[in-house]
Design goal:
With 267 residues, this protein is of the alpha+beta class. Helices cover 43% and strands 11% of the residues.
Length: 267
């Protein structure tokens, strides 16, 4: 059995497995408390936004308008980042002297700090995860005797739901074919933004458009999507995967398919 390794910035250890040990403890008595929440770029995933907007009792549209900035990534698709406050230190809008006001629903990037995923496609296919400890010079959290394994830290910080939900999005945007192209069509960008980030608008799209007339969706899933954001998120990711990657994760209804073939003159 491999021995645990005590990882800090003096060991030179680059990669940690879930069984490896590192030392870290953040609390309000630290002189650097909240300093890591200033002047940083935090990319928000769809699941981040789902959790945050629900914690604030806001619609996804209202949350996006108030707290985010949208950029266009290398693949031509929208990327959402958290908008820092327009003060001198560019502080996070959710952080005060007592800490994070949405701490139970903070973004994944904040949740996993000070660890950084170092997994590759090879390790992911093998079902293995590796992390490194971030080198943050001002952070005093490393000055502690409190030691725990990476797996214990992941559990303590509530990362498990993200481990389940994030791959639904990551498996789309990390697709090799998609990464080699650049989406320029504005309507595709808008539909991607709606399905990935503005879930409340996507829910209206599902029920107010011809969506349910076009796709075979089980009645129990339709009912779940009406009120369950997680069910809605899963459907949204399947729709994006179907549309962007042409994967058969949704089934077109037989009559719609037949009508399409007839229009194209295909028997």
């Amino acid at each position: 059995m491999k021995p645990n390794i005590s990882a800090d910035r003096d060991t030179g250890l680059c990669v940690l497995s879930p069984e490896d040990v590192f030392r870290f403890h953040c609390h309000p008595e630290r002189t650097c408390f909240n300093q890591c929440c200033r002047n940083i770029t935090i990319f928000l995933t769809p699941y981040d936004i789902l959790r945050m907007k629900s914690a604030l009792s806001m619609t996804s549209g209202a949350f996006l308008a108030r707290y985010t900035v949208t950029l266009i990534g290398d693949a031509g698709l929208p990327i959402v980042i958290l908008q820092m406050q327009p003060d001198k230190e560019k502080t996070c809008p959710f952080v005060g002297s007592g800490g994070c006001s949405i701490y139970p629903d903070r973004p994944w990037a904040c949740r996993v700090y000070p660890l950084k995923p170092e997994s590759t496609r090879i390790t992911e296919k093998a079902g293995k995860s590796y992390y490194s400890v971030m080198d943050v010079p001002f952070c005093r959290g490393f000055e502690t005797d409190r030691a725990l394994t990476v797996a214990e830290w992941i559990e303590e910080q509530g990362v498990s739901p993200y481990v389940e939900m994030e791959p639904l999005f990551k498996n789309i945007i990390a697709n090799e074919q998609l990464m080699q192209t650049r989406i320029e069509h504005n309507q595709i960008r808008q539909m991607f933004y709606m399905a990935c980030y503005d879930l409340d608008s996507f829910r209206r799209f599902v029920f107010d458009s011809t969506f349910l007339k076009r796709f075979e969706i089980a009645p129990e899933e339709v009912e779940a999507v009406r009120s369950d954001d997680l069910a809605l998120y899963r459907l949204a990711m399947r729709w994006v995967e179907y549309g962007l990657l042409a994967r058969q994760v949704l089934t077109v209804k037989a009559d719609v398919l037949a009508a399409g073939k007839k229009e194209l003159g295909i028997e």
